[in-house]
Amino acid sequence: MTVSDRMEWQNGMKDGIPIGLGYFAVAFSLGIAARNAGMTPMQGFLASLSTNASAGEYAVFTLIGQNAPYLECAVMTLIANARYLLMSASLSQKLHPSVPSWKRMIIGFDVTDELFGIGIARKGWLNPAYYYGAMLVSIPGWAFGTLLGVIMGNLLPARIVSALSVALYGMFLAIVIPPSRENKIIGALVLISFLLSWLSSVLPAVSSLSSGTRTIILTVLISGTAALLFPHEESGDM
To answer: Do 43 and 34 form a contact (C-beta atoms < 8 A)?
Structure first.
């Protein structure tokens, strides 16, 4: 490793510390969800160590708790994490053409909203060492946060565990509400999503389907329709 790479690695670790701390706090609630799905601390730890995705993991943990089939879990994970495909494609443009495929694959292992943000914000070409440094401190925060959440979920009284179970919903609301207030289209789509989700649970034609299948259908239907009717204009900036 060159001196430049070593400095980039250290800078990545420095920028990754607040991300890792944030992941630890959020993953604690995710651990509660894993515990409610019947997972052991080690299972929750390995799940978060190999899949650093809050919405995707939570969706799968919910399906696991409902004894959903493997195929349904796989499709739900693919849909919930589909945005990472676009982020990866954009991030690849920040890498110098000389960066080998194996280094790109390591980066692709942990493309998250936060790591993508700090990576794409770097001026000039993105040095893989910088991204590796950020990964080094953020991934353990996510994995150990989930581990602790499962452990505490087994130790705390049921009433407290039930209260902590809604923490992830609060996180999702914190993500959805700000853009909904700024963009009326997003706000309308959120309300439509709530309405269709409720209707799908009571209408005879679709209520017999599993909740995971209904979520998959609604996600594809609503996001696809929104993309066709309200395409996002490209700014042309890198």
So the answer is: yes
Encode pLDDT of 186-206 as tens digits. Answer: 888 888 888 988 888 888 877
Query: How far is the C-alpha of 231 from the C-alpha of 223, rounded, in Å?
Result: 11
Quickly list H helices, the chain.
Answer: 3-36, 41-50, 54-65, 70-80, 83-92, 101-109, 113-120, 128-155, 158-164, 167-182, 184-202, 204-207, 211-229
Q: Which positions ≥6 away from 100 have C-beta within 8 Å? A: none
The reported pLDDT for the residue numbered 168 is 56
| Burial class for 102, CB neighbours closer than 10 Å (0-12, 13-18, 19+) | exposed
For residue 5, give Cα distances in angstroms to 13, 44, 128, 200: 12, 33, 8, 52
- Inform me whether the pLDDT recorded for 2 exceeds 70: yes
Task: For 161, list phi and psi in degrees, rounded to 5.
Answer: -60, -40
Residue 68 and residue 212 in contact, taking contact as beta carbons nearer than 8 Å: yes
Contacts of 217 (CB under 8 A, 6+ apart): 200, 206, 209
- Give residue-wise pLDDT tens across range 112-145: 888 888 888 888 899 999 999 999 999 999 999 9
